[in-house]
Fold:
Amino acid sequence: MATQESSHSLALTDAERKQIAADFRKAVNMSHESLKKWLASDDSKRVGYKSDGGQSVGHQSGERIVKLLETLSGNLDEDDFQHMRKVVGYVHRHMAQGTSKHDVATSDWRYSLMNWGHDPLEERR
Structure:
């Protein structure tokens, strides 16, 4: 009987890598410099889900995104592309949820998105 492998265990094709990279560039609208500066802020460290009470998942992801933005595309591995996919999914889901706050600029919703490299108030770069 043949077993079906998980899509995460299969190597990505060049076309899939290109699509993931394009989607990532659309989702992440902060430069690595602005994201790095944001991640150093108290608001960045305050928001997000903290599984162990320490650093939030989004803050950890933001640190990885900074590294991804600084890495030449030819030097990315399968795990990098999987994380890029995760970032795209997070940004799309949370943008679709929106926020009920009147002041989006200081909302935890925006701050969480910014930890993932997306500032909903920024123009597309």
